[in-house]
Write a structure and sequence with these properties.
This protein is mainly α. Among the domains are: 99 residues, Potassium Channel Kv1.1, Chain A, CATH 3.30.710; 71 residues, Serine Threonine Protein Phosphatase 5, Tetratricopeptide repeat (Alpha Horseshoe), CATH 1.25.40.420. Strands 2-1-3 form a three-stranded mixed beta sheet. The protein is elongated and about 105 Å long. Keywords: Kelch repeat, Repeat. This is BTB domain-containing protein. It holds the Pfam family BTB.
Length: 295
């Protein structure tokens, strides 16, 4: 029979709108009952069962494994020891459902798992959640996480919050847990908002003594980042120079002596301040400025 005899046959395409969602729901039910699961993800002492095809469809990490010929390609178990079991379980549930519930308690482990397993959109959801929940209690950890996972916009947002609110953050225990590099980065910022520079010296001392054995050697570098000429002369002489940590390092004594000389003769040295001293005011120490415009 010639082909053209069928050319006028009626053709109609039917589409079940909820078919993809229905299939996913059925796959989730299969997983929930352990039916046809063919892979176990081992995280610590926990095994998380799933289907290879579903994982490959939802994770570029697993897609790479199952489209290649690695040892894991044919294994019935894959070790994910560096991740958190709860985070991996949440990510696997997302792959099966397209739904994720993030909290301050799980977002960090979910982000780690989502990044490692390379799950589309999930890293963005974590970033959005962290962005929406930057506060005094979370800003330092969000800043660190944003840097770790190369979330540049989030890092800028968290850093701005920290700089703007440092007068409150400086009193919190979390600031004492900062690595030296991060604390130094903050201390070097013109935008660091503080009422008085003296508070930063007290923070440096407190931070150093929090783990004095391991941090003592970093004290001179942190001290050099402070703007001692912004402090009151009486404070430098009576409080700063009497600090035992300061007296352990000749370079610290020299720096404070130089600052005292400057503070005693600011008018003579204002046009050419000593090279080792930063006299530039910070945002929080700037006094009110009245601008008068004439017409």
């Amino acid at each position: 029979m010639a082909e053209d005899e069928f050319s006028n046959e009626p053709v109609r395409e039917f589409c079940t709108s909820d078919h993809p969602g229905s299939v996913l729901q059925n796959l989730k039910e299969l997983r929930d009952t352990g039916t046809l699961c063919d892979i176990a993800l081992v995280v610590g002492s926990r095994e998380i069962f799933a289907h290879r095809a579903v994982l490959a469809a939802g994770s570029r990490y697993f897609a790479s494994i199952y489209r290649s010929d690695y040892t894991e390609t044919h294994a019935s178990r894959i070790e994910l020891g560096s991740l958190d079991a709860g985070g991996v379980e949440t990510v696997v549930q997302y792959i099966y459902t397209g739904v994720i519930k993030l909290t301050l308690g799980n977002v960090h482990v979910v982000l780690a798992a989502a990044t490692h397993l390379d799950v589309l959109h999930l890293k963005d959801y974590c970033q959005q959640f962290l962005s929406d929940n930057i506060s005094l209690g979370t800003c330092l950890s969000v800043w660190a996480v944003a840097d770790l996972y190369d979330m540049d916009e989030l890092k800028v947002q968290a850093l701005k919050f920290i700089l703007d609110n440092f007068t409150k953050i400086i009193t919190m225990e979390d600031v004492l847990e900062l690595p030296m590099e991060r604390l130094l980065e903050l201390l070097l910022k013109d935008e660091l908002f503080v009422d008085k520079e003296e508070a930063l010296f007290e923070l440096v001392v407190k931070w150093t003594k929090y783990d004095v054995v391991n941090r003592r050697a970093t004290f001179p570098k942190l001290l050099a980042s402070l703007r001692i000429p912004l402090m009151e002369l009486e404070y430098v002489i009576n409080n700063m120079k009497s600090e035992p940590l300061l007296n352990e390092f000749p370079e610290c004594l020299s720096l404070t002596d130089e600052a005292v000389s400057y503070l005693m003769r600011p008018q003579l040295l204002k046009d050419l301040p000593p090279a080792g001293l930063n006299t530039r005011p910070r945002l929080g120490t700037l006094k009110d400025v009245i601008v008068v415009c004439g017409g």
